[in-house]
Design brief:
The chain has 253 residues and is an alpha/beta fold. It is built from eleven helices and nine strands. The protein has a single domain, classed as Spore Coat Polysaccharide Biosynthesis Protein SpsA, Chain A, CATH 3.90.550.10. A hairpin with a 2-residue loop joins strand 2 and strand 3.
Length: 253
Amino acid sequence: MKKASAIIQARMGATRLPNKVLMPLAGKPVLEHVIRRCRHAQLVDRVIVATTVDPQDLAVVNFASGLGVGIFCGSASDVLDRYYQCARLFESQHIVRITADCPMIDPDIIDLVIGRYFDAGADYAANILQPTYPDGEDVEVFGFDTLRRSWQEARMFSEREHVTPYMIKSKVSKKVNVAHDIDLSKHRWTLDEPRDYQKLSAVFDALYQKDDFFHMNDIVQFLAGHPDIDKMNAGIVRNQGYQKSLADDRKVV
């Protein structure tokens, strides 16, 4: 059975919510939840945390190493280079990109996207090309050759800071979008701002003790019965970081 390596990008220096990757949810740091959920995916053979050489990210290194995952420290601003160097070092031929601000990432969705990637013989597969999944269930899968080509050819700041824009825009790659039967893209349970943290904390407090790996449908059902919690982070725009990169875009390579 073909499998892929999950590379989780994580750093302490987030602009809108510093140190978010080690903030507690139901007694465990955010990053631990992400790692455990990636490990639970059947088509993931290895989990690696890709952080930066910034001294403050020693906290990420120390914590993640205690969980027995692979560790890589690279560029803080050129995340595409960080991913490439990490995948090259660990000899990862197929990569799942997961961000550390998604503590409710569903292992089943990770497996679904990886499976579609392999079945289609794709260069890139994801559930974000035409979003139908909640913000916080983002999964991207790509081959090392695709990553290397992007690393060699991407020139714009937005293409280096966010890893996959060049892949998505490329006309030579075979791309696959994984869509959900019901459009759930209005939901948001990623972690970027204090209001996001309040919402995630409420969901974890309600669901985590019942099942360590509560799934997307469990969250949707819970929020349907608790509209006050669902509205805690209403109005926050999806992919604010990428939009900011586009607004400040410039050639950097």
